[in-house]
Specification:
The protein is of the alpha+beta class. The chain is built from five helices and four strands, in the order βαααββααβ. The chain has one domain. It has a four-stranded antiparallel beta sheet with strand order 2-3-1-4.
Length: 135
Amino acid sequence: MNATGDLFYESQAQYSSQAIADTLKDLITQPDTRAEIKVQVQNVLDGQKVKVDPEAVIRSVSRIEVKDQGAGFDSESVRLLVSLAPFIKELVPLVQPFCNDASAVAKKIALDLWEIIKGKLSDKKKIRLRSRASV
């Protein structure tokens, strides 16, 4: 992650950034997947000793931004920029009452939750994101 909260990935060329963003939002609205994510989010929050409703955190996921960043590493992939900054910004006030360094805790929660969601994209939708260095 760079200083602005951006992560760089590549994905299969058939998935545009908009398709991935739409799939991400669709995943968290499906009842079975949402229930699984809710349990995992609760575990993340418990690990950080933050007493926030996991539903509030899941609703904030829509703030994750996925954008195209030009050509991918090879002809079958597309380079993506995933920005967690808006998501982290929304998490800070939620965790503020529970910790001294809310931004660091919000960043940790955002990264953990992103790993959960990235796993769901792979497991349920077969969209695999490969990490890449920044452009």
